[in-house]
Amino acid sequence: MAIMQTVAAWFGYAPRDPVDGNQNATRTVTKTAKPVTFDSAMTVTAVFASIRLLAETIASMPIEMYVKDKNGLLDSKANHDIIKLLRYKPNKRQNRIEFMEQLMLNLVSDGNAYTRITRVGDKNSRIISLDIINSSNMTVILKNDDVIYRQQITSAVTRDFKEEDIWHVKLFGNGIKGLSPLQHAAKAVGVADASDDKITSLMKNGAKPTGALMTKGSPNADQRDALRKEMGDLTSGDETFMPVLPLDMKFQAISLTPSDIELLATRRFSLEEIARMFGVPSILINDSTQSTNWGSGIASIIEAFHKFNLRPYLERLELSMLTSLVPRKDWDKYQFEIDADAILRSSRKERVEMYNTEISTGQRTPNEIRRAEGWKEKDGGDELYMQLGFAPMKAIAKQQPNQQKVTRDE
Prior knowledge:
about 400 residues, three-stranded antiparallel beta sheet
């Protein structure tokens, strides 16, 4: 089996272990309908909407850092310098929302997000700033089992960072660098971009087809030039006019119409392909063809979107924050949590019913419920309650004689 895997790797049929040198992808998709870059891809509405949905959704979720007790359970919120940065203002230019949006924009499009860590104090133990470096400016280099991050500042100036100076969040890949979704879906994005260009060209041209003037005779060069000039508005321009052709001449359209090339179907398929690439249900980027799924089905769609797409991103970010921003000796002491409950928040009626069940069964205190709703705590609200009207038959039988005695005394 090992020999077969090695042979497969030689021919590019399987992932290979990273070797010393530049880890940035050197093989790119060449057969595309149009050249695909980050800027051109972002002009495709499905790409822009998918990336924005992921970036804005995750950026809107609160970030907390908790202290764990000796059993590994969450005890209390941590009063740590790093969570103050992540919760409010990671650097002098961005607040938390803006910072996380940029981080997710890089991660979702390139498969990698790089953040420069600025430290001060004794042994550089205190982090004072987190600054994102856009992925296109970073090169990952593996040298003697050490990772070097090289930032391209200008065309002639670069700057190298050690592994501990960069917070690197990556999607699945070779372990050193994540795979780029845009790069590996260039064909689908190129088709979508080319389709948009075709529609733009048609609309700019008044949706007029190209064609030829058919005649029985053989006009000379001057006559053909005169006909082209006179009848040019048949195939170009957005103005309408009433053409008058000679008696023995007719216009024959020779370009394919949008229906001939199934342009609408191509755009529809491209939307699904792009949404599939980012793991986003197409209905969440305003795909109206599945409008019947709205209503009772939207709750299931959002729940599945959270479980199978958002949750992996959140777990990846939480663990990366801990291992990159907290000293190794404190990994067992702290835990980061990105609160995703907001997007799964049920209606008020459903929440009241759930809270009533949780309080009556001793799962949560009234003040825990109030904190979850953002309300002020009340005195006496930290007690757990349990309904006593439900008990085993043995317990009821033991209480029966005492109840009878009380009745006779009365």
